Amino acid sequence: MHALNDPHVNENEAATLIGSTPKTLRTWRSRGRVAIDGIPGPPFRKIGRRVIYPLSGLQEFVAAFPKLSFTGSRPGDEAQ
Asked: Rounded to whole angstroms, how far apart are CA atoms 21 and 47?
């Protein structure tokens, strides 16, 4: 389990990082986190109505699912 103090991103940022869409992430969550080919979807937490994804969990997900690629930077980081 990923610690709550690990860096997290929201659904839109997570989708961008793994080259997917927010709709796909919602589908994976509603199906019990099962992605294509039986690989579990990325870990997430719900805090009230808010859904967050730990960055380390997204990296692990992409490592297990080589068709995706992790961009390594959060949306908006290039502006900093």
From this structure: 21
